[in-house]
Design goal:
Blueprint lengths: L17 H11 L3 E4 L8 H4 L1 H22 L2 E7 L22 H16 L4 E5 L2 E2 L12 H10 L4 E4 L3 E2 L2 E2 H14 L3 E4 L6 E2 H12 L5 E4 L1 H4 L14 H6 L7 H22 L1
Parallel strand pairs: 1-2, 2-3, 3-8, 4-7, 5-10
Antiparallel strand pairs: 6-9
Helix pairs in contact: 1-3, 3-4, 7-10
């Protein structure tokens, strides 16, 4: 899919500035707009729902309207948290969402606005992302890095064992998303690593692969006591990918091993360059 990929920094394009964003996109006249911006501080959103809805919903609606007026295609990223976790088999794109908290509700609102206001919108639901670039919205970290950092500090770790998900390497997700975009698919599409695990077992595999042996205790969601409720089961099925003839990403275990190897290579390169 030929073209020029532009990656403006936040200082250059802030989607909370509606007029500035519209002006910038009209000047650029893109064929596709990929929106990865999100207020993803799940617990903080319970206390500041207006901030979550401003970025996760209202700004998405504005982007969708602007894309529609330009004849561009909006590609928007959403989350497994739009589901309530009551199901015990992977959620398909056809399953009805039922968000449990403010963050999840704001992301579902963003999905709805994207699809209502841009007829060619593509909404990609992802889950448990970890990647080299990490997450600006989560302090420049991810679950893998948080676990390793705390373990190396000698901290005793309590990790939730009753929330089951499909943690996903961003590199694998990106490769599949590129193919979905090229297919012309619109509507919903789930893109996550294959397989399922709990946060606790995910942490155990991280430590096994890295040869780290911290004090690690499984706890229930209730014992952990997070401010926002999370779905106890949020594994996503890949029905849309199958219909498109696109293979699902590799399983989360080899994806995690690849990520750990890739981050090591990046660190080695940075040390040689310093």
């Amino acid at each position: 899919m030929p073209g020029t990929l532009l990656t403006p920094r936040h200082a250059e394009l802030d989607i909370l500035d509606a007029s500035g964003t519209r002006e910038a996109l009209r000047a650029l006249r893109p064929t596709h707009v990929l929106n990865t911006a999100a207020w993803n501080a799940v617990d903080a959103a319970e206390n500041e729902p207006q901030r979550a809805f401003a970025l996760n919903a209202d700004a998405v609606g504005m982007l969708a309207e602007t894309c529609q007026s330009l004849g561009a295609r909006l590609v928007h990223f959403s989350t497994d948290y739009v589901f309530d976790g009551a199901k015990r088999t992977p959620y398909t794109e056809a399953d009805a969402p039922n968000p449990l908290g403010a963050y999840a509700a704001s992301k579902l609102a963003g999905e709805t606005l994207a699809r209502e206001r841009c007829e060619h919108a593509l909404v990609i639901r992802v889950c448990g992302l970890f990647g080299i670039a990490k997450s600006a919205g989560k302090g420049g970290t991810n679950f893998v890095e948080t676990m390793l950092s705390l373990a190396r500090q000698g901290r005793a770790l309590r990790v939730v064992a009753d929330q089951v998900l499909g943690p996903s390497y961003t590199l694998d997700v990106a490769r599949i998303v590129w193919r979905v975009i090229a297919s012309g698919h619109t509507g919903l599409c789930h893109v996550t690593s294959a397989g399922a695990t709990s946060w606790y077992d995910f942490a155990r595999e991280i430590f096994r692969l890295e040869g780290v042996q911290p004090s690690l205790t499984p706890v229930s969601s209730e014992e952990y006591g997070a401010r926002a409720r999370r779905p106890l089961y949020s594994v996503l099925a890949h029905d849309a990918l199958r219909a498109l003839g696109i293979s699902e990403p590799r399983a989360w275990q080899p994806a995690l091993a690849a990520y750990l190897a890739d981050r090591g290579a990046v660190s080695d390169s940075a040390r040689r360059g310093s």
